[in-house]
Amino acid sequence: MVMNFIGLTLGFTAFMVLMVQVGYESSFDRNHPTSGRIYRVDKIGVDKDDIFRNILPRGYADDIISCSPHIEAGSIACPFLSSIVFNVASKDGRLTEPFEGKVNLVYPEVFKVFGAEFIEGNADAIADMQSVAIPLSLARKLFGNESAIGRIISHNEKYLFGAEREQNLVVGAVYKDFPENSQICNDIFLNIGDLQKGSYGGANFCCYLLLDSPGNKELVERTFNETTDYEDSEWLTDIELTPVEDIYFADAGSAIYKNGSRGQMWILICISIVVLLIGGINYTTFFTALAPMRVKSINTRKILGSSVFNLRAGLVFEAVAFSLASFALALCIISPISASLASEGLVDMPFRFPQQGFLIVISAFMALLIGIIAGIFPSFYVTSLPPAFALKGDMQYSLSGKHFRTVMMVMQYAVSFVLLVFVTSIYRQNEYMISRDNGFDKDNVAVVKISQSQYARNAGWLRQRLSAMDEFEDVAYSMECMGGQDVYSTSTYNFNGKPIRTFVFYCSPNFLRVMGIPVVEGRDFSESDKSVGSVIINKAAAYQDIEMSEGGALDGIDIIGRTGDVCINSLRQDVSPVIYIALPEDYASLTWAYIRLADGFDRRECVRKINEVLLEMDPSYLFDVKLYDNILGELYKPEIKQEKIVSLFSLLAAILSLVGIFGQVLLDLQYSRRTIAIRKVYGADSSPLIWDCLKKYTFRLLLSFLIAVPLGWLAIVRWQEGFAEKVGISGLEFVVAFLMIAALTLAIVVVMSWRAVRANPVESLRKE
């Protein structure tokens, strides 16, 4: 009873935790006051997976925003700005501890588009180029309950926000945090000013519109498409408007927007139902298995005058009370459990009672339903027998009860097999992606982001300072973090009259050497190469007919070398073409530093020494030194998160199944005491008796495994469709799942059977 009570409690807890996550994903961008009227601008005729389908030039976006009176408000936003380090200026002018914040360049109208509520100030505050709007959560973190208006935050980025903006920014407004499940983040918002104003070339912005009515969506599209014509442009096309509520699932493969997979959401739904179902099956099977023990007592009461209705109602009420008690205990433990899972990054939203009233009602109804179902069959069964037969007969061999328990057990086994097979497949795919040879030596490399100002002042000093130490070989720089993202600066070049689109990776001349990227054809960069005077391509770029031929050039830039099969993006996509452009130290800001560690030194001690040097360079900055394998871990964070949450709850489902199996073995042996005792009296050995139990459960294992194989195969194939490179199905998943569950089950059967056959047969017969 204790095991089934705990199992059912964990089933309810797991169900509610996972359904909170499902609710988080299914309600994405549906909690804004203006939800239903917000649209993102997409270009027609551009492939769905093309980054420039909805990343637009500013001039083009401005034309769209002003094209129709049915557009109440519109704003651009820049999704490519990463988090930067700020310092808060105290009232006496001193800089306090640094903090990291994500910034965004927008129009003040962005707050109207998403229905923002202001705690202090208003949207007009960021009309001033030196003012920013910050979320309430950040204001409370930095200033407590004091007013944030007029406080100064300072950054160290030299060129990021345009030359007209100073490094000291004034807090002009505080807005209430946007919902967590929203495309618009709780960023530090700045006015974009004149940056790329009127430009129809470089595309760096997404565009959001607020319409006066959803019914005018087609009218706005038609108005722009029929009245605007960019004859001189091949890539400024007609537009269509995508509801912001659709972005989360529609752009499942996008690296720009927050996105999720409907398939993964359905996996969570299935697992939540399965875990609750297994707990319910255990409970129902448990109450059914108790029926033969209760036949005599129930029918004795029936003979003494109790009505059939009262007897049945009492049994059902007992089952319902047991189920509701489990649900009540689940409500007591769910908050700390979900908060712990959220802090570990396994779920995006913890369980909060004020927000989950509907889920609590649904779960309570399911607890009531499970209790009723668990109580109905045994209540009708034990009260439908003739009292005289029930008092004298042996009810342990009820075929209907045995068949019911067998079917339930096979279902539990099959579900456990499928879940373990799926978890093993996820683990193999993730291990393959993380450990795959990306074409460079990623071992013994530390990575840290510095500011633009620090690079301009201290790039050479930092390289010289670290290279002089035995623990470090060299330091290189790049504009973006290689291998840490799926999208990089992208350009289209002309090669022999053919347009070639490729990632453009700006780096220091020694970058390829520090990262262990061999140049297999041509030559590497040298320290004397002039700015953007030459490029090196990777193998994927060469596959686009870019040749290392005499005089080969991309728009006049000489191709001096080719690397091997270097992959700098995740395996969610095909290996992308890349051109490397070496920049001299005084040309631009390469704010990612790569430090090659020497062999034979402790990596943690190396990281400690790097931090010491960085603090010597700038004690007021927030540095975060990472080893390169951590960079890859962050790149595959969604897959690792899915692996952990699916593994955790699949393991729970398997444990609950084994709990149910343990109970079944215990009850089966309890009902077989007389048979075992009689056979022992007549001289039977222990081994055949144990073997009889093993044969019965081995048959159930094999039957459920045959059912699970095609289901597990289908689940793996459908899940791996989301990856450009797949690890495939090896059969190992099925072998591991079968061996694990078979070993645990048969161990339980052997131990319990051994205890049963070793019991004194005289005592068993006397009790019977």
- Tally of individual helices: 22
Compute the number of structural domains. 5
The share of residues in extended strands comes to: 15-25%
Q: Based on helices, strands and strand pairing, what is the structural class?
A: alpha+beta
Oligomer: single chain
Average pLDDT, all residues: 84
Gap between N and C termini, in Å? Answer: 22 Å
Major beta-sheet overview: 7 strands, mixed
- Gyration radius from CA atoms, angstroms: 33 Å
Topology:
Elements: H1 2-26, E1 38-43, H2 58-65, E2 71-77, E3 83-89, E4 95-106, H3 110-113, E5 118-120, E6 131-135, H4 136-143, E7 152-155, E8 168-175, E9 188-191, E10 206-211, H5 217-227, E11 239-243, H6 244-250, H7 262-289, H8 291-303, H9 308-343, H10 357-383, H11 387-392, H12 399-435, E12 445-449, H13 452-467, E13 472-478, E14 490-495, E15 498-507, H14 511-514, E16 519-522, E17 534-537, H15 539-542, E18 553-554, E19 557-563, E20 578-582, E21 592-597, H16 603-617, E22 626-627, H17 628-635, H18 637-671, H19 673-681, H20 686-720, H21 732-757, H22 761-767
Parallel strand pairs: 4-9, 6-8, 15-20, 17-19
Antiparallel strand pairs: 1-10, 1-11, 2-10, 3-4, 3-7, 5-8, 6-9, 7-8, 12-21, 12-22, 13-21, 14-15, 16-19, 17-20, 18-19
